[in-house]
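Here is one record:
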Amino acid sequence: MKTVLGIDLGTQSLKVVFYDYQAKQLAAAASSPLDVLRDSSGRAEQEAVWWVDALRSALGQVPDEVRASVQAMGVSGQQHGFVPVSAEGKVLAPVKLWCDTSTQLEVDEITEACGGRDRCIEHAGNPVLAGYTASKIRWFGKQYPGRYREMAFIMLPHDYLNFILTGNAAMECGDASGTGLLDVRTRQWSPQLLHAVDPERDLSACLPPLLDADQVLGVTSEGAARRFGLPAGIPVAPGGGDNMMAAIGTGNVTPGKLTMSLGTSGTLFAYSDTPVIDADGNIAAFCSSTGGWLPLLCTMNCTLATELMKQPLGIATPQFDATLVEVEAGSDGLIMLPFFTGERTPNLPKASASMLGLTAQNCTRGHMLRATVEGATYAIRFGLDEMTRLGIEASEIVLTGGGSKSAAWRQIVADVCNLPVTLLAQDEGASFGAALQALWVLQRQHDRSTSIEAVTSEHLASRPDACSKPDPVNTRRYQRGYAAYQRALVQVIPLFDN
């Protein structure tokens, strides 16, 4: 047996998958939970050591013979986090995560220093947002000036795991484009944005070298092999952000399809051969981890919102679908704006969740749960409209993430977006994508003509029994529901003081 290992460092858990690429089947999978440190300021942090412990725990659940079969590995990680590391490899502070919204002041300062939002987009392709890494760097320098001076490396979460596995510090352009510091057009660091973050220090000296997506980042060190029970000397692919790896894991490596991830956050993205820059800044102009570009919309509240609502409503996971289908499409006019942790699209870091349109008829558990699912889906549907405006066309949505396991939610997506929804046989999009990137890197060591499209075509298959087609009646209802959601959003925005 020969396998490739995919690691996905998520927000709520770390997952590992071992894929037997000769038999074309999973050999093993495991996960370990992660906690998040939150408070009312918008702080969302984790300790980097938790990731290492979680990786060791997840790998420890896998039989020795499977771990011994690994030929290559790749790491997927939550985007935008900030890991400051000293020259000795010491993490200098808790890691601020993508969902941390406590750095809005720093966003404003960087944007002003760069000459405004439009100038940020001009220099980097993206505005500076609270979720991105740039503001976290500036915040760290202000809060911990001594440790800031010690900082030798700026890493992202998946970069840090790569560092632990190989001893090498490097980045790849997909994840790097989520820092707010990369000019996505040229795939080079933007001097203007780096200067806006810190005009007194050359931050480029702290940024690891950028790798092409098909390069070998390094090999597993002897120490990592002992620590994690893996073979020493096996190649480690560059990896990438979780969205970039999910693109690979869903076969979104050529134009023509959309991937929607219903995870803690909600995302919608499409592959492009050329940069896609949104002058309004609603669609993130990211690079892919396959050599192209990945225009993307991200919301901050997807399964996070549904999990939060399930608790007070007393709805257990096995009851989720049955509760949803108790209520007709549109939730009888009940609208949920699911901004429990603020929101990134639209950019409302200080927003909170709200429910509008409660009546004696719709004040039920089922209505509240369905309205939450619909609200999370409407928020992502906005991205479909924006991508269409930017010239991106697609004939299907490939669904991934925890929410994709719900048949009722899959149907809601098909109806809200009026597109067929495809579910793949391998549903761990990001971790499986990391494994497939590793396989691509491994095969290109022997045959440089091997394309990522060929790899995904060979190793991905759909599940016809779990695909959904739009229901015309529900689609019409959701046209009205989506319009009502948009009107509600316009009405409440003034309540959120940015």
User: Anything to note?
Assistant: The first helix runs from residue 48 to 60. The first strand starts at residue 3 and ends at 9. The chain has two domains: 3-242, 251-423+468-498.
